[in-house]
Amino acid sequence: MAASxxxxxxxxxxxxxxxxxxxxxxxxxxxxxxxxxxxxxGVRRAVESMPGIFQLSVDEAVRHAxxxxxxxxxxxxxxxxxxxxxxxxxxxxxxxxxxxxxxxxIKEALPQLMVWADVCLCxxxxxxxxxxxxxxxxxxxxxxxxxxxxxALNYARAGADAVAPSDMMDGRVAAIRALLDAEGFSxxxxxxxxxxxxxxxxxxxxxxxxxxxxxGDRRSYQMDPANGREALREVLLDVEEGADLVMVKPAxxxxxxxxxxxxxxxxxxxxxxxxxxxxxxxxAAQRGWIDERAAVLETLTGIRRAGADLIITYFAPxxxxxxxx
Length: 325
Known about the structure:
Layout: H1 15-20, E1 31-37, E2 44-46, E3 54-56, H2 58-70, E4 75-80, H3 90-93, H4 98-109, E5 114-119, E6 132-133, E7 139-140, H5 141-158, E8 162-165, H6 172-182, E9 191-196, H7 203-209, H8 229-241, E10 245-249, H9 255-264, E11 269-273, H10 275-286, H11 292-306, E12 310-313, H12 316-324
Parallel strand pairs: 1-3, 1-4, 1-12, 4-5, 5-8, 9-10, 10-11, 11-12
Antiparallel strand pairs: 2-3, 6-7
Helix pairs in contact: 2-4, 4-5, 5-6, 8-9
């Protein structure tokens, strides 16, 4: 065929044509909404660095979960910032702890809403790290893994539909799977933060989750942003250990990693559009520099196009409303 006859623009000439041939689609069912739970009653505290996001007491979390579920959100991811913090992460281990109470309350009120529970120690420790700290300030892997498995079991008992270990300790997926199976929770999926990078985009989240480390940083356990092949190694190890879904975090700066992971595994791939990505769009939109709706849909479509089956995003309620309109 002569080059002059080839005109790809023919199927771009109208909105109907563009919709008919569109390759990548966003669906409400593909979006997971993060929520932050804090102590108290009647608490709905705005997160200054994340416009439209709130710290919520358990009663308000139930109320907000109902609102977003009615708007089309089908899954939420819970983070807890308990008042009591200690070296053992006792609140995360307790059946009466903040996270466990929030999980139980939301599931009782909204059994049809899927609740994922973030499994980490940072929010419940007085040092803010994702594992146990030795006297020399080193994060001890194996004792941390044992505690993380107990935390996951606590959240499964509370009613979590999935547990999501975000700590990046070696071997934690295998330990969680073994304990859940032994305790009668073999049906509880593990959503592994398999390739979690030591990113500069987490700043606003640490305000919302009250989980900033008291000393040092997390580069000894979270991944170096320069590494791609290492991400595949981490992902494949977690799949071998029993992960049911694997996650890449953050999403936007790591689209290449999402694609490599999608090509390497046969289980669902999750990508987390993190707080910094959210806040950048919000800040630019508030100043009139970009069109918020267009930017949100473009970034999420890009994450889906890269290979993510599911996207954790603070825009989930907004996007669900747009998709239903």
